[in-house]
Design goal:
The complex is a heterodimer.
Chain A lengths: L8 H19 L8 H21 L6 H29 L3 H29 L11 H37 L1
Helix pairs in contact in A: 1-2, 1-3, 3-4
Chain B lengths: L2 H37 L9 E5 L3 H4 L1 E3 L6 E3 L5 E2 L3 E11 L6 E7 L5 E3 L4 E9 L5 E7 L5 E2 L3 E3 L4 E10 L9 E3 L2 E5 L2
Parallel strand pairs in B: 4-12
Antiparallel strand pairs in B: 1-5, 2-3, 5-12, 6-10, 6-11, 6-14, 7-13, 8-9, 8-12
Classes of the chains: A mainly alpha, B alpha+beta.
Protein backbone atom coordinates (compact mmCIF):
# COMPACT_ATOMS: atom_id res chain seq x y z
CA UNK A 1 0.00 0.00 0.00
CA UNK A 2 1.46 3.36 -1.02
CA UNK A 3 1.14 5.81 1.88
CA UNK A 4 -0.15 9.30 1.13
CA UNK A 5 2.58 10.98 3.18
CA UNK A 6 5.69 10.07 5.14
CA UNK A 7 5.11 9.16 8.84
CA UNK A 8 7.27 12.14 9.83
CA UNK A 9 4.30 14.31 8.88
CA UNK A 10 3.12 13.87 12.49
CA UNK A 11 6.49 15.03 13.73
CA UNK A 12 6.20 18.13 11.57
CA UNK A 13 2.68 18.76 12.89
CA UNK A 14 3.96 18.34 16.47
CA UNK A 15 6.76 20.86 15.87
CA UNK A 16 4.25 23.37 14.47
CA UNK A 17 1.94 22.80 17.44
CA UNK A 18 4.76 23.48 19.90
CA UNK A 19 5.68 26.65 18.02
CA UNK A 20 2.03 27.70 18.06
CA UNK A 21 1.63 27.23 21.83
CA UNK A 22 4.92 29.02 22.39
CA UNK A 23 3.57 32.10 20.60
CA UNK A 24 0.26 31.75 22.41
CA UNK A 25 2.02 31.58 25.78
CA UNK A 26 3.99 34.66 24.83
CA UNK A 27 0.80 36.55 23.95
CA UNK A 28 -0.83 35.47 27.22
CA UNK A 29 2.37 36.03 29.24
CA UNK A 30 0.41 37.51 32.14
CA UNK A 31 -0.88 34.04 32.98
CA UNK A 32 2.24 31.95 32.31
CA UNK A 33 5.71 31.81 33.86
CA UNK A 34 8.28 33.66 31.71
CA UNK A 35 10.14 30.48 30.84
CA UNK A 36 7.15 28.68 29.25
CA UNK A 37 7.34 30.12 25.68
CA UNK A 38 11.07 29.31 25.55
CA UNK A 39 10.43 25.83 26.89
CA UNK A 40 8.00 25.19 24.04
CA UNK A 41 10.48 26.57 21.50
CA UNK A 42 13.06 24.16 22.93
CA UNK A 43 10.55 21.31 22.56
CA UNK A 44 10.09 22.27 18.91
CA UNK A 45 13.86 22.18 18.49
CA UNK A 46 13.93 18.70 20.04
CA UNK A 47 11.34 17.67 17.42
CA UNK A 48 13.51 19.15 14.68
CA UNK A 49 16.50 17.18 16.00
CA UNK A 50 14.37 14.02 15.96
CA UNK A 51 13.39 14.80 12.36
CA UNK A 52 17.06 15.12 11.39
CA UNK A 53 17.92 11.83 13.10
CA UNK A 54 15.04 10.07 11.33
CA UNK A 55 16.11 11.53 7.99
CA UNK A 56 19.55 9.98 8.36
CA UNK A 57 18.27 6.62 9.55
CA UNK A 58 15.29 6.14 7.25
CA UNK A 59 16.71 2.96 5.82
CA UNK A 60 17.15 1.46 9.32
CA UNK A 61 13.62 2.06 10.63
CA UNK A 62 10.54 0.61 9.02
CA UNK A 63 7.29 2.50 8.42
CA UNK A 64 5.82 1.31 11.72
CA UNK A 65 8.74 2.47 13.88
CA UNK A 66 8.82 5.84 12.12
CA UNK A 67 5.06 6.16 12.59
CA UNK A 68 5.14 5.38 16.32
CA UNK A 69 8.14 7.65 17.00
CA UNK A 70 6.44 10.54 15.23
CA UNK A 71 3.09 9.80 16.85
CA UNK A 72 4.53 9.86 20.39
CA UNK A 73 5.98 13.34 19.79
CA UNK A 74 2.73 14.51 18.22
CA UNK A 75 0.67 13.21 21.17
CA UNK A 76 3.00 15.03 23.60
CA UNK A 77 2.44 18.27 21.64
CA UNK A 78 -1.33 17.70 21.71
CA UNK A 79 -1.24 16.97 25.44
CA UNK A 80 0.54 20.30 25.97
CA UNK A 81 -2.19 22.15 24.09
CA UNK A 82 -4.82 20.52 26.29
CA UNK A 83 -2.76 21.27 29.42
CA UNK A 84 -2.50 24.96 28.47
CA UNK A 85 -6.27 25.01 28.10
CA UNK A 86 -6.80 23.25 31.43
CA UNK A 87 -4.23 25.51 33.15
CA UNK A 88 -6.01 28.66 31.95
CA UNK A 89 -9.41 27.29 32.89
CA UNK A 90 -8.80 25.67 36.27
CA UNK A 91 -5.59 27.13 37.68
CA UNK A 92 -6.12 30.69 36.52
CA UNK A 93 -9.94 30.54 36.51
CA UNK A 94 -10.05 32.48 33.23
CA UNK A 95 -13.16 30.78 31.90
CA UNK A 96 -13.82 33.10 28.98
CA UNK A 97 -10.25 32.83 27.65
CA UNK A 98 -10.32 29.07 28.24
CA UNK A 99 -13.54 28.78 26.23
CA UNK A 100 -12.09 30.81 23.36
CA UNK A 101 -8.91 28.71 23.45
CA UNK A 102 -10.93 25.51 23.43
CA UNK A 103 -13.11 26.48 20.46
CA UNK A 104 -10.38 28.15 18.41
CA UNK A 105 -7.32 26.03 19.18
CA UNK A 106 -7.81 22.86 21.24
CA UNK A 107 -10.93 21.41 19.65
CA UNK A 108 -9.95 22.00 15.97
CA UNK A 109 -6.43 20.70 16.65
CA UNK A 110 -7.74 17.51 18.26
CA UNK A 111 -10.24 17.04 15.43
CA UNK A 112 -7.61 17.42 12.71
CA UNK A 113 -5.14 15.25 14.64
CA UNK A 114 -7.71 12.47 15.07
CA UNK A 115 -8.56 12.55 11.38
CA UNK A 116 -4.94 12.29 10.24
CA UNK A 117 -3.87 9.72 12.84
CA UNK A 118 -6.84 7.41 12.26
CA UNK A 119 -6.58 7.74 8.47
CA UNK A 120 -2.87 6.96 8.50
CA UNK A 121 -3.18 4.12 11.01
CA UNK A 122 -5.90 2.59 8.84
CA UNK A 123 -3.55 2.68 5.84
CA UNK A 124 -0.87 0.96 7.91
CA UNK A 125 -3.55 -1.58 8.86
CA UNK A 126 -3.01 -0.82 12.56
CA UNK A 127 -6.68 0.21 12.83
CA UNK A 128 -9.74 -0.72 10.76
CA UNK A 129 -10.44 1.72 7.88
CA UNK A 130 -12.47 4.83 8.60
CA UNK A 131 -16.13 4.52 7.57
CA UNK A 132 -16.80 6.14 4.21
CA UNK A 133 -19.80 8.39 3.78
CA UNK A 134 -21.36 7.83 0.34
CA UNK A 135 -21.07 10.92 -1.88
CA UNK A 136 -24.85 10.94 -2.43
CA UNK A 137 -25.44 11.45 1.31
CA UNK A 138 -23.06 14.42 1.59
CA UNK A 139 -25.70 16.86 0.31
CA UNK A 140 -28.20 15.62 2.93
CA UNK A 141 -25.52 15.96 5.63
CA UNK A 142 -24.84 19.54 4.51
CA UNK A 143 -28.54 20.44 4.60
CA UNK A 144 -29.07 18.74 7.96
CA UNK A 145 -26.16 20.49 9.64
CA UNK A 146 -27.07 23.86 8.09
CA UNK A 147 -30.60 23.42 9.49
CA UNK A 148 -29.31 22.55 12.98
CA UNK A 149 -26.99 25.56 12.89
CA UNK A 150 -29.85 27.81 11.74
CA UNK A 151 -32.14 26.56 14.53
CA UNK A 152 -29.46 27.01 17.21
CA UNK A 153 -28.67 30.50 15.91
CA UNK A 154 -32.37 31.42 15.97
CA UNK A 155 -32.81 29.95 19.48
CA UNK A 156 -29.83 31.80 20.96
CA UNK A 157 -30.85 35.06 19.25
CA UNK A 158 -34.36 34.72 20.66
CA UNK A 159 -33.02 33.91 24.14
CA UNK A 160 -30.84 37.03 24.06
CA UNK A 161 -33.83 39.19 23.00
CA UNK A 162 -35.95 37.79 25.83
CA UNK A 163 -33.13 38.46 28.33
CA UNK A 164 -32.69 42.08 27.19
CA UNK A 165 -36.47 42.63 27.29
CA UNK A 166 -36.71 41.26 30.83
CA UNK A 167 -33.82 43.53 31.88
CA UNK A 168 -35.65 46.56 30.43
CA UNK A 169 -38.82 45.57 32.32
CA UNK A 170 -36.83 45.29 35.57
CA UNK A 171 -35.38 48.77 35.04
CA UNK A 172 -38.85 50.26 34.48
CA UNK B 1 9.27 50.42 34.32
CA UNK B 2 6.53 52.32 32.48
CA UNK B 3 3.81 50.86 30.28
CA UNK B 4 5.59 51.77 27.03
CA UNK B 5 8.77 49.94 28.07
CA UNK B 6 6.75 46.85 29.06
CA UNK B 7 4.91 46.89 25.74
CA UNK B 8 8.16 47.33 23.85
CA UNK B 9 9.85 44.44 25.66
CA UNK B 10 6.79 42.24 25.07
CA UNK B 11 6.79 43.11 21.37
CA UNK B 12 10.50 42.33 21.12
CA UNK B 13 10.01 39.01 22.90
CA UNK B 14 7.13 38.12 20.58
CA UNK B 15 9.09 39.18 17.51
CA UNK B 16 12.11 37.10 18.49
CA UNK B 17 9.91 34.06 19.22
CA UNK B 18 8.10 34.57 15.92
CA UNK B 19 11.37 34.70 13.99
CA UNK B 20 12.71 31.58 15.70
CA UNK B 21 9.39 29.80 15.08
CA UNK B 22 9.48 30.69 11.39
CA UNK B 23 13.05 29.44 11.10
CA UNK B 24 12.29 26.13 12.85
CA UNK B 25 9.06 25.60 10.88
CA UNK B 26 10.74 26.34 7.53
CA UNK B 27 13.74 24.11 8.31
CA UNK B 28 11.49 21.24 9.47
CA UNK B 29 9.30 21.56 6.38
CA UNK B 30 12.31 21.46 4.07
CA UNK B 31 13.72 18.38 5.86
CA UNK B 32 10.31 16.69 5.64
CA UNK B 33 10.04 17.57 1.96
CA UNK B 34 13.46 16.00 1.37
CA UNK B 35 12.39 12.89 3.28
CA UNK B 36 9.12 12.66 1.42
CA UNK B 37 10.87 12.75 -1.92
CA UNK B 38 13.38 10.19 -0.71
CA UNK B 39 10.76 7.83 0.63
CA UNK B 40 8.95 7.33 -2.67
CA UNK B 41 9.47 3.78 -3.80
CA UNK B 42 9.80 2.72 -7.39
CA UNK B 43 8.35 -0.75 -7.58
CA UNK B 44 7.99 -3.32 -10.34
CA UNK B 45 4.66 -4.40 -11.76
CA UNK B 46 3.52 -6.28 -14.82
CA UNK B 47 2.58 -4.18 -17.85
CA UNK B 48 -1.20 -4.05 -18.17
CA UNK B 49 -1.12 -3.98 -21.96
CA UNK B 50 0.78 -6.87 -23.49
CA UNK B 51 1.18 -8.72 -26.76
CA UNK B 52 -0.46 -12.13 -26.92
CA UNK B 53 -0.47 -14.80 -29.60
CA UNK B 54 -3.15 -14.79 -32.31
CA UNK B 55 -4.50 -17.43 -34.67
CA UNK B 56 -1.82 -16.67 -37.31
CA UNK B 57 1.05 -16.36 -34.83
CA UNK B 58 2.48 -19.79 -35.63
CA UNK B 59 2.36 -19.21 -39.39
CA UNK B 60 3.96 -15.81 -38.96
CA UNK B 61 6.64 -17.21 -36.63
CA UNK B 62 5.66 -14.99 -33.75
CA UNK B 63 7.68 -14.98 -30.56
CA UNK B 64 6.20 -13.11 -27.65
CA UNK B 65 9.07 -11.44 -25.79
CA UNK B 66 9.75 -11.53 -22.05
CA UNK B 67 6.87 -9.96 -20.09
CA UNK B 68 4.83 -9.63 -23.32
CA UNK B 69 6.16 -6.17 -24.05
CA UNK B 70 7.38 -6.96 -27.56
CA UNK B 71 6.70 -9.47 -30.29
CA UNK B 72 8.82 -10.50 -33.25
CA UNK B 73 7.89 -12.39 -36.44
CA UNK B 74 10.44 -14.36 -38.39
CA UNK B 75 8.46 -16.18 -41.06
CA UNK B 76 6.12 -13.67 -42.60
CA UNK B 77 6.24 -13.58 -46.39
CA UNK B 78 4.39 -11.69 -49.10
CA UNK B 79 3.57 -12.52 -52.70
CA UNK B 80 4.70 -10.55 -55.75
CA UNK B 81 1.84 -8.72 -57.45
CA UNK B 82 -0.70 -10.12 -54.99
CA UNK B 83 -1.71 -9.28 -51.44
CA UNK B 84 -1.02 -11.74 -48.67
CA UNK B 85 -3.02 -11.16 -45.51
CA UNK B 86 -2.09 -12.33 -42.02
CA UNK B 87 -5.34 -11.70 -40.21
CA UNK B 88 -4.24 -12.27 -36.64
CA UNK B 89 -0.47 -12.25 -36.26
CA UNK B 90 -0.67 -11.15 -32.62
CA UNK B 91 -3.13 -9.67 -30.19
CA UNK B 92 -2.86 -6.56 -28.07
CA UNK B 93 -4.52 -7.32 -24.76
CA UNK B 94 -5.46 -5.06 -21.87
CA UNK B 95 -5.02 -7.23 -18.78
CA UNK B 96 -6.44 -4.57 -16.46
CA UNK B 97 -9.98 -5.51 -15.47
CA UNK B 98 -11.12 -1.98 -14.60
CA UNK B 99 -9.15 0.64 -16.56
CA UNK B 100 -9.02 1.33 -20.27
CA UNK B 101 -5.68 2.25 -21.87
CA UNK B 102 -4.91 4.54 -24.77
CA UNK B 103 -2.80 2.77 -27.36
CA UNK B 104 -1.22 3.81 -30.63
CA UNK B 105 0.56 1.48 -33.03
CA UNK B 106 2.98 3.47 -35.13
CA UNK B 107 5.58 3.34 -37.89
CA UNK B 108 7.69 5.92 -36.16
CA UNK B 109 10.62 6.84 -38.41
CA UNK B 110 12.20 6.06 -41.75
CA UNK B 111 14.98 4.07 -40.09
CA UNK B 112 12.40 1.61 -38.76
CA UNK B 113 12.49 -0.41 -41.94
CA UNK B 114 15.41 -1.66 -43.96
CA UNK B 115 16.35 -4.14 -46.70
CA UNK B 116 14.89 -4.23 -50.22
CA UNK B 117 12.33 -1.59 -49.49
CA UNK B 118 12.04 -0.28 -53.12
CA UNK B 119 10.58 -3.67 -54.11
CA UNK B 120 7.71 -3.44 -51.67
CA UNK B 121 4.44 -2.32 -53.22
CA UNK B 122 2.89 -1.88 -49.80
CA UNK B 123 2.70 -3.25 -46.30
CA UNK B 124 -0.42 -2.25 -44.44
CA UNK B 125 -1.00 -2.92 -40.75
CA UNK B 126 -4.52 -2.71 -39.31
CA UNK B 127 -5.98 -3.22 -35.84
CA UNK B 128 -9.39 -4.87 -35.40
CA UNK B 129 -11.62 -5.38 -32.39
CA UNK B 130 -13.35 -8.64 -31.47
CA UNK B 131 -16.29 -7.87 -33.80
CA UNK B 132 -13.92 -7.33 -36.76
CA UNK B 133 -14.39 -3.59 -36.93
CA UNK B 134 -11.18 -1.77 -37.82
CA UNK B 135 -9.90 0.46 -35.03
CA UNK B 136 -8.22 3.68 -36.10
CA UNK B 137 -6.39 4.29 -39.34
CA UNK B 138 -4.35 1.92 -41.50
CA UNK B 139 -0.58 2.05 -40.93
CA UNK B 140 1.38 2.33 -44.16
CA UNK B 141 4.82 0.91 -43.48
CA UNK B 142 7.46 3.25 -44.90
CA UNK B 143 5.45 6.41 -44.31
CA UNK B 144 7.04 8.17 -41.37
CA UNK B 145 4.58 8.80 -38.54
CA UNK B 146 1.88 6.61 -40.06
CA UNK B 147 -0.17 5.27 -37.15
CA UNK B 148 -3.52 3.95 -36.05
CA UNK B 149 -4.02 7.17 -34.12
CA UNK B 150 -4.81 7.07 -30.43
CA UNK B 151 -7.27 4.32 -29.58
CA UNK B 152 -8.93 3.46 -26.27
CA UNK B 153 -8.43 -0.21 -25.51
CA UNK B 154 -11.18 -1.17 -23.01
CA UNK B 155 -10.49 -3.17 -19.88
CA UNK B 156 -10.01 -6.95 -20.33
CA UNK B 157 -10.11 -6.68 -24.11
CA UNK B 158 -7.97 -8.10 -26.88
CA UNK B 159 -7.63 -6.59 -30.34
CA UNK B 160 -6.00 -8.39 -33.25
CA UNK B 161 -3.32 -7.00 -35.54
CA UNK B 162 -3.55 -7.69 -39.27
CA UNK B 163 -0.69 -7.41 -41.76
CA UNK B 164 -1.24 -7.05 -45.54
CA UNK B 165 1.91 -7.50 -47.64
CA UNK B 166 2.34 -7.01 -51.36
CA UNK B 167 5.63 -7.14 -53.26
CA UNK B 168 5.99 -5.55 -56.68
CA UNK B 169 5.52 -7.81 -59.71
CA UNK B 170 8.60 -9.79 -60.61
CA UNK B 171 10.32 -9.45 -57.25
CA UNK B 172 12.74 -12.27 -56.63
CA UNK B 173 12.25 -14.61 -53.68
CA UNK B 174 15.69 -13.64 -52.35
CA UNK B 175 14.40 -10.16 -51.39
CA UNK B 176 13.39 -9.28 -47.87
CA UNK B 177 12.70 -6.34 -45.61
CA UNK B 178 12.79 -5.79 -41.87
CA UNK B 179 10.10 -3.66 -40.24
CA UNK B 180 9.74 -2.29 -36.75
CA UNK B 181 6.52 -0.86 -35.34
CA UNK B 182 6.13 0.88 -31.99
CA UNK B 183 3.21 0.43 -29.61
CA UNK B 184 2.65 3.47 -27.41
CA UNK B 185 0.54 2.82 -24.30
CA UNK B 186 -0.67 5.67 -22.12
CA UNK B 187 -3.10 6.06 -19.22
CA UNK B 188 -4.37 3.40 -16.90
Amino acid sequence: MRLPFAPEFFLLLGIDLFLGISLLACLLDKYFPTVIPYLYQASALVGFAQLLIMKDSMTIFGDMVRFWCSLVYFVIALANIVSVNVYIAFMKKMWSIAKILFTCVTFPTILIATFFVFGYAALLEVLPPLPRIPLEVLFIVLVAFSSIMGISFFASFKLQTVKSQSKKTEVK
Amino acid sequence: MNARTILRSKALKLLSLLLISMAIAAASASVYNYMYMQSLEISVEAADVRFVTGTDSTVAGATIGTNGTYVSFNSMAGWPNSTRVYQDVAGIQNFNSTSAYTIELKFDQAGDWSGDTPDIDYIYVKVFNSTDIQQGATITVGTTGSSTGTLSLPASTTWRVQWEIKWKAGTLSTKNVTVKLTLIVTGG
